[in-house]
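2.7 Reproducibility. Because tokenized structures are sensitive to small changes in the input, we list the exact sequence used for Heme chaperone HemW, including any N-terminal residues retained from the expression construct. No trimming or masking was applied before prediction.
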Amino acid sequence: MPSALPDGEPVPADGALPASALAGAADRPLGFYLHVPYCATRCGYCDFNTYTATELRGTGGVLASRDNYADTLTDEIRLARKVLGDDPREVRTVFVGGGTPTLLAAGDLVRMLQAIRDEFGLAPDAEITTEANPESVDPAYLATLREGGFNRISLGMQSAEQHVLKILDRTHTPGRPEACVAEARAAGFDHVNLDLIYGTPGESDDDWRASLDAALGAGPDHVSAYALIVEEGTQLARRIRRGEVPMTDDDVHADRYLIAEETLSAAGFDWYEVSNWATSDAGRCLHNELYWRGADWWGAGPGAHSHVGGVRWWNVKHPGAYAGALAAGKSPGAGREILTDEDRRVERILLELRLREGVPLSLLRETGLTASRRALSEGLLQEAPYGEGRAVLTLRGRLLADAVVRDLVD
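Resulting structure tokens (single pass, no recycling of outputs):
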């Protein structure tokens, strides 16, 4: 979750939504994102809304404590119940992210999930995911999560090469993520994801191939592979600016993506979103698909974003301010925006074009349709789906996805 928050209109003290946002809610999927803002150390590339113990010391008091965070988050889940009213929907997905959620006791994560179960109910086939750093879990921890209802885990591997991990300031040792996959499988997790990053300064093509081979050897059914983005204000950005490490260029990123596609495809993985591959439809991350398809989700936690029925809002960033608002019986919302039909049309194109199913051509204006025909002639869109009324990226189109999107949204 990026640390910067947008501007917006004030959120009512009770968090109330306009009636238009709740109209037809029963027909839309509902998910929950639970943000845990704590990390043991700050990775050099990280621009997320996270805090180490040192960064929180003296700024949040007891309200910002990890020890009572599950109780604080439960307060927001109860607020969500009040705001959404008599919404009959069961929750389809829950995703616990951060930060490092597994810095909390496993029982705390289970209690947060139980609060959603108590307030809303969970769909019988609900996808329940937590992120985890490899060094922050062990077999007993994973067993507690599985017994508590978690059925999917996303492990931050990033790389199998020690010198790459060092540049990223990652604290786990090579081999530990792969061991975690085995431990998660033994605990009974249905689905396991490994997160990888390519394009780290100093990484070679062979380093990247070794990371992919190590990830595949561990036996996950889902792999996410993201190009490293160097955000201003991070330690890595400062190191690059000082000339300590080189900046990786876009051509290298493209080459690494092609290596990923070739390697993962050969191992039986299919892409379903530009940066995500799974061995089956069942292995796809349903929670992320809620985001990509503009469904409803409630984001609980400092800085978390939510969307319900065309209303998007975001919470205050700091854990102390977040907990203080809830303790006072108020919404922790910092701002919100009500999306217009045009906003939602553009967002559908931006997000759905990244999916394997693509985006309906009917969403495009005339200039966007002209651009789509040009993209088709340039080999950026697939011919067969285009003839059926959908814009679907080719492999080359995936490499240039941002540029294609810019053209299609007029």
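The chain has 17 helices and 14 strands.
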